[in-house]
Every structure is written in structure tokens, then in C-alpha cells.
Amino acid sequence: MVWESVQNCDGLVDGQTVYLASFRTLPAYQGQGYFSQLLRFMLADLRRRGYRRATLGVEPGEAKNKAMYAHFGFTEFIKAGTETYPDGSKIAVEYYAKPLA
Question: How many domains does the chain have?
């Protein structure tokens, strides 16, 4: 399956669940609504394409990001795990879900 390339994929992605990765806003553009507009568009588009649930991961210490994701409905805690970046460094990650239906 193609989603097996997602680290810790069990419970994060399947035929009706999509995993969102690599959300970043350049500091100069933060607070201007770009992220909100993009995320709303993506979630609506994914819903139209038949996905019923979206998941994502966030580092436990990233309070601002966790609060922002919770604001957008990513409040269902799935699990905690460790991810490895391409350079080999490891980070702790908490995974959350949001229904799209």
C-alpha cells in the first residue's frame, strides 16, 4: 500500500483516512491567514474526494501548533510515537485526528 511510506502509519491512514504532513508557514507570513485558508481548502477538497477522517502529527512541546490544530478540530488523540527525519535525527510526535464527514 502506498500509505505504508507514512511513518507509524497504523491508525493514521487508510482508504478513507488521509495523513497531512509538513505544514509550515514562513515566519514573515505568519498571522496573515495563509495557513488557515490552505487548510480549510484542503480539508474541504479531501471531503469531496471521499475521505472521512484526517490525521496529523505534532511535536508534544509545540504548544502553539497543538493549539492551532485543536482549533481546527484535530482533537482526537490517536497515539504517540517517534519519527526519524531524513538526516537521521529523531523526534517525539503525538498524532491527532479530525472527522471530515
Answer: 1
